[in-house]
Amino acid sequence: MSIGWIIFRVTAIWLAEFVLYGLLDQRLDGLNHLTARVLGANLNLLQLDARVSGDTVWWLQDRHGFTIIDECTAVFGVSIYAAFLLAIPASFRWRMVGLLGGGLAILVINQLRLLLLALVQTFIPSMFTFAHEYVWQVIFILTIATLFLFWLGRINREGARVHH
Fold it and tell me: How far apart (Å, rounded) are the C-alpha atoms in residues 77 and 37?
């Protein structure tokens, strides 16, 4: 399979996922609430007195807060990762291993991202925008690429690729 064909397949799959996301947008609000609840629980583990109201998390007696929007969830990162996995010929079993393992890793890393951004906002607020808009964007892209390359290496080693 040529690299051009793989790029075409990744793009087509991701665009289909994006259209599906647009159709389900209102139904995915629960992800925002869930992400907020998990962040609130993690902040409470650090004894930062967090409370959650819908998709908003407040901590330290409401002095700091985030409103979780769709882009704060891991839905876009997982969808891009899934597009890469689905574009490569592989057995169903290995696709599921990659989707579940990588998807879970992306969810965990996203929560770590939110938690660290909350700490930056709390203790170094002048660095928040830079950390949010630049540092974590690069880290997230590198994470998705690393997870995909790890999966690709595993399916090549295990002979799990399906050749067309």
Answer: 20
3-state secondary structure of 17: helix
Asked if residue 164 belongs to a domain, the reply is no
- Structure token digits, residue 96: 């599921």
Distance (Å, rounded) from C-alpha 134 to C-alpha 150?
24
pLDDT in tens, 71-97: 899 988 898 898 888 888 888 899 999
Residue 45 maps to a domain:
yes
Q: Tell me if 47 is assigned to some domain.
A: yes
Does the global pTM surpass 0.85? no
Beta strands (DSSP E) in 63-147 are 64-67
What's the domain range around 100?
A: 3-158
Tokens read off for 119: 């700490």
Q: Structurally, how many domains does the chain consist of?
A: 1
Segment 97-132, tens digit of pLDDT: 999 999 999 999 999 999 999 999 999 999 999 999
For the chain, the residue count is 164
